Write the structure tokens for this entry.
Amino acid sequence: MQDSRISDAVVNRLPRYYRYLSELEAAGVERVSSSRMSEDMNLNASQIRRDLNCFGGFGQQGYGYQVSRLKQEIMKILGIGASYKAVIVGAGNIGQALLRYRHFGDEGYHIVGIFDNDPELIGREVGNYRIRGMSELPQFLKENKVDIGIIAVPKRYAQQVADDLVSMGVTGLWNFAPVDVEARRGISVVNVHLSDSLYILSYRMRENRKNENN
């Protein structure tokens, strides 16, 4: 369970740090200061230091951060490198797009099945996967230790699917339905709203146009 003392805002910035450090490592950079990180990432240097200090002191005053070590520490914090099994419920456009995304496996997230209740989809092949009927889900989860349920169904079915997955032993829910789902204490839930990024983009475009006209 996430430490309640660590804010969601801090946790949400960790993937940005991880991606940034991965780029530095690939470029052969061995050491980086919070000031350099601030310039490159458009974040306040003191904020960066506070974020990282939430998980322990990884830097040294006057020296900065060792890139490879800090990256490894953030990997451990985020659980990257561990191995997780996931199933997708919902074989529509979003579900199939997620299934075809190949980099999940590189990070340790392995999709082992995709399920739907549409007779026209059941039995179809998507890549190396056969779309299974929802009736097969209980037995499949019983036979395979699945950690994550990826929900990609219409919003009216999302909460029921979440409840069913949890009742079958899944402990993490990654929800792409256009509605938030909830789960009991001890179950990790991330609700993804794809439209939010577009709203933010349209806001920034609007602000840029306003500034250009001033």
About this structure: The longest helix spans residues 194-213. The longest strand covers residues 109-116.
